[in-house]
């Protein structure tokens, strides 16, 4: 930035000009950082509002993936949730590519997710080089087919438990930066917490339903005198709590020594 200042004599006549040069790069960079920070806060607020509006894991994940490209130049993003009990992984993808979104909701054997073992042994941001992968999951095959040679996998951790990963492929090999990875890491932490809160809410609702059912069952047993009415009420409570395939009650007849 160049500034010109006129030099005058006592009569007010201009004798010449004095020029000063100021480097404004620092100011420009500071203003850009400020704009980026304001944008990040706005996006995070939008993600937070969308998460609050959904009580299902899939809705929370899609609210995040649908806005993640506004935080940094992300090409493709996905979330994988781990089900250790059933040894399964569920894949959630951003809707940016038709073929990619076709993978949304797909379940895979947990041992086919290469990042699972890596993140279990080292719960930190992991860089995956697809060129070094001999066996690839459907997600990794799609990334490779669309020109992505690597991606970052960020662990989703609740307490000390690994529940999944947030996976990000940047638009180019040089598009990522430490700042972007820090933003993605904060986003992964927030996503893991939101998913955990959803799980706790569902568990609380289920416990409330079970307690109500047990109360109704006890009430029916102590107040219902008609056997048929009692069995009907028991059937309704059992199916509500357990959703069984078969419901049967056998009554013992002492006189006949049988049921």
Main sheet characteristics: 6 strands, antiparallel
- Residues in β-strands, percent: 15-25%
| Rounded Rg | 30 Å
Number of DSSP strand runs: 8
- Helical percentage: 40-55%
The helix count comes to 7
**Which stretches are poorly predicted, pLDDT < 50 over at least 5 residues?**
none
Output the strand order for the largest sheet: 5-4-3-8-7-6
Order of helices and strands: EEHHEEHEHEHEEHH
Mean pLDDT: 76
Structural class: alpha+beta
Shape: elongated
Distance between the termini: 99 Å
Describe the structure.
With 259 residues, this protein is of the alpha+beta class. The protein is built from seven helices and eight strands; from the N terminus they run ββααββαβαβαββαα. The strands form two sheets. The chain has a six-stranded antiparallel sheet. Helix 1 (25-52) runs antiparallel to helix 2 (57-65), helix 2 packs antiparallel against helix 6 (178-223) and helix 6 (178-223) runs antiparallel to helix 7 (227-242). The protein is elongated, with a radius of gyration of 30 Å. The model has no long low-confidence stretch (mean pLDDT 76).
